[in-house]
Design goal:
The relative contact order is 0.15. Strands 1-2-7-6-3-4-5 form a 7-stranded mixed beta sheet, with helices on both faces. β1, α3 and β2 form a beta-alpha-beta unit. It contains 8 helices and 7 strands, in the order ααβαββαβααβαβαβ.
Length: about 240
């Protein structure tokens, strides 16, 4: 108990400083200290405090999952994962979102990500890039099994054209929007596009249409939160 009391006192001072810093930027905030198991404590806090979103920093460990990774994989709630070079050195005085990259596979989660962007940024002076990625490995596998290699290029051209038609329906009228469909290794294409578009944040579904039902995080989402050059908003 003396150890916990000492830890709580240290954390109270740190949290109180954060509250004061936010107040100087006209952001009302409060803090709550909880002692207990990580996931169970957050699940209870989400319920008790009626939390809509979580914001957390991300850090990976070589041997085992970090606390942030455990939360990302387990908690079924939209969360902003702060990581990448874009988040380094940022403070409330210079924090601004100019460019957004939204990843879509037309799943419910990715469409909810677009709805969230519309709610938060509609009418604001930002640039939105909506990206759909075709997995080269899956297409190669499909054609290797079917043994129709000679038609692959034609098939891909048609598939990309169809995807662009589908992307047209996702445009948000009050936001300057660019549509992209690219082929490759999904997480690499996403990161390359984020750098190319100078994205300040990536919005994406926590899992897509190819993820197993009940799994909180898809393989592409998990790869992105470990490698992204900017913060990632995971939407469930």
């Amino acid at each position: 108990m003396p150890y916990l009391e000492k830890e709580h006192e240290i954390n109270r001072k740190l949290l109180s400083k954060i509250v004061d810093d936010l107040k100087r930027h006209n952001i009302d905030s409060t803090y709550k200290l909880i002692t207990g198991r990580l996931i169970e404590s957050f699940q209870k806090a989400i319920c008790d405090l009626k939390i809509d979103y979580i914001i957390l920093g991300h850090r990976s460990h070589l041997v085992k999952a970090s606390s942030s990774e455990k939360m990302i994989r387990t908690l079924n709630i939209p969360m902003l994962v702060v990581r990448g070079a874009k988040s380094e050195g940022v403070n409330l005085a210079n924090l601004k979102v100019n460019n957004i990259l939204c990843i879509t596979d037309f799943s419910e989660n990715s469409l909810r990500a677009l709805k969230l962007i519309e709610r938060l940024f509609s009418g604001k002076d930002i640039n939105l890039t909506i990206l759909n990625v075709l997995s080269k490995a899956r297409i190669d596998n499909l054609f290797n099994k079917a043994n129709i290699e000679e038609n692959k290029n034609q098939f891909c051209e048609k598939l990309i054209a169809d995807r662009y038609n589908n992307l047209e329906s996702l445009k948000i009228e009050e936001i300057n929007t660019k549509l992209l469909c690219r082929m490759g290794i999904p997480y690499k294409v996403i990161n390359e596009t984020a750098i190319e578009s100078n994205a300040d944040i990536i919005f994406m579904g926590a899992r897509g249409i190819t993820s197993i039902e009940g799994v909180k995080l898809g393989s592409v989402s998990e790869a992105i939160i470990k490698t992204s050059p900017c913060p990632v908003m995971l939407v469930t």
